[in-house]
Amino acid sequence: MRKLPAVMPIILALLLLSLAPCLAANQNAPAHPGRSRPEKSGLEELIREALGNNPGLKAAEERLDAYSQIPSQAESWDNPRLGVGLLNLPDNSFSFEQEPMTQKQVTVAQEIPFPGKLPLKGQIAGKDVDIAAEAVAEKKNGLIMQVKTVYWDLLLVEKTIAVTRENRDLLRDFVKTAESRYAVGKGIQQDVLKAQVELSKMIDMLIRQQQRKQDLTARLNTLLYRPIDTKVTEIEGQDLDRLPLPTFAFGAGELEKMAAENRPVLAGARRRIEKYRLAVRLAKKDYYPDFDVAVSYGQREGRPDFVSGSVMVAIPLWHKTKEDRKVAQERANVIMAREQYDSLENDIFFSLQDAVLEMREYADQIDLFKTGLLPQARAALQSAIAGYGVNKVDFVTLIDNQLTLYDYEIKYYGLLTDYENTMARIEAAVGKRLF
């Protein structure tokens, strides 16, 4: 039997020791998504902070407050008008006593809308308030989805950095091993160069992931209205390995029903249809005149005073080009709003069906990686290490097996993140939290 070089036991021990953290991390990989998930206080804290501080959401809330001031204005009469004047003052003397019709006059006028117009205006303004309220709710749902997406992406980056560091350290050991074998004449320079190239790639991956972490941190701080470089402590202690996924047991039809009942943007579109229907009724009221009522009091010097009154109405003489066109305009708005609602609903339902297919695909892939690809890749790497120790496996095969395991690890954690991000997208689409 061939006697192993004296350096080989040290090399094998070094390889196994270096692989221990990497392989152990995969032993902790979560099983197929379970039926429940513990509350993630870090994520919930971030969501609460975003809902309390985000400037975009606050702007939408202030817009709602502004709209809520309109209905009472729309239902109120216009302010009365007060006028003062001089009548029949002779220009040759400017005397108030020369002519009997000379008088000082005070007039009070008030426009009185035709009955039913002001209540309709108030109801239309009320629909604008409802639409603004639904816009605030939609903004909240979108903000929650954005926070969740950045949160999960940050966890993925943290995990990717940790796994990459482990593999970087392992590759450094491989470089030392290749150099040691080459030094004693048991290896080739090509092995050393390949290990160095793969090590450089791993270092480059770390640099890019660190940059992505900074970008995501800045994005999250922007959503939370924090200083851009604030450290996100809420993700500390969170690990994708220890956060079991919920079972996604919803069908597309069930989600579509939820969206129809709960999605704020759909509710807002329905309110817009109702608003334009009210506008049609108001446009028909324009055929009926408003009343302009005025009362005047004229004071004369040394003679009886005068009291005058008048009522004026608008005659819809040009109704074919004005009032008729206004009614037609509002009816067209009703049709437009209905079509917009149908288009919006169709887009939401399509996105939900697509997301359901994605969730099922992610669940199957997660199960495949967890029960098949990752265990197989670990076994292949362990076999390559053992074979390399007895010169039955070359160095290139050893490196390839290690990189394959690394690639599967990154893809696996990416699938976990995609699963959660798609879940967040579905919750935003249906307008409610599902878990």
Can you give a write-up of this model?
With about 425 residues, the protein is an alpha+beta fold. The chain has one domain: Up-down Bundle (Outer membrane efflux proteins (OEP)). The chain contains 10 helices and 4 strands; from the N terminus they run H-H-H-H-E-E-H-H-H-H-E-E-H-H. It has helices at about 5-25, 40-55, 55-70, 70-75, 115-185, 190-225, 250-260, 265-285, 325-390, 395-430; strands at about 80-85, 105-110, 290-300, 305-315. Strands 1-2-3-4 form a 4-stranded antiparallel sheet, with no helix packed on it. Strand 3 and strand 4 (about 305-315) form a beta hairpin. The longest helix has about 70 residues, at about 115-185. The chain is elongated and about 135 Å long. About 25% of the residues are buried. The model is unreliable at about 1-40 (pLDDT under 50).
